[in-house]
Amino acid sequence: MANPWFLLLIAGLLEIAWAIGLKYTQGFSKPLPSVLTVIAMIASFYFLAQALKTIPVGTGYAVWTGIGAVGTAILGIALFAESTALPRLACIGLIVAGIIGLKLTAPA
C-alpha cells in the first residue's frame, strides 16, 4: 500500500481542485466543469478513505481540510484576486502551522 500521508496529500490536492471547480461550475450550470468537479470530489474522498485506514480519523480529516482550505485560499488569491490582507494571510499561516503540528504529532 502507498504511504498513507502521500494518499492524504493527494486527497487534499483533489479537495483544492473540486473547491476551485465549484466556482467554475456556476452553480452546476456548466456541464464540463460540473462533471470534472464531481470526479475530483469522488477521487478526493476515495484517497481520504484509503489514508484513514492508517491515519487517525481526527488527524486525517483535519489535515485534509487544512490542505484544502490553504490551497483554495491561495488559488483564490491567484485566480480571483481575493484579499491579501495581512490578517488573512496570518490566518492561512496558522492553518499551515496546525497541519504541520498534526503531522508531527500523529502516530502513523
UniProtKB/TrEMBL annotation:
Keywords (A to Z) from UniProt: Cell membrane, Membrane, Transmembrane, Transmembrane helix, Transport
Keyword ATP-binding part of the UniProt annotation: no
Membrane-traversing stretches: 29-49, 61-80, 86-106
The organism's place on the tree of life at top rank: Bacteria
Gene3D superfamilies, A to Z: 1.10.3730.20
Bilayer topology: Multi-pass membrane protein
InterPro entries: EmrE-like (IPR037185), Small_drug/metabolite_transptr (IPR000390), Small_multidrug_res (IPR045324)
Cellular localisation: Cell membrane
Annotated family: Belongs to the drug/metabolite transporter (DMT) superfamily. Small multidrug resistance (SMR) (TC 2.A.7.1) family. Gdx/SugE subfamily.
Name this protein carries in UniProt: Guanidinium exporter
Native source organism of the sequence: Microbulbifer celer
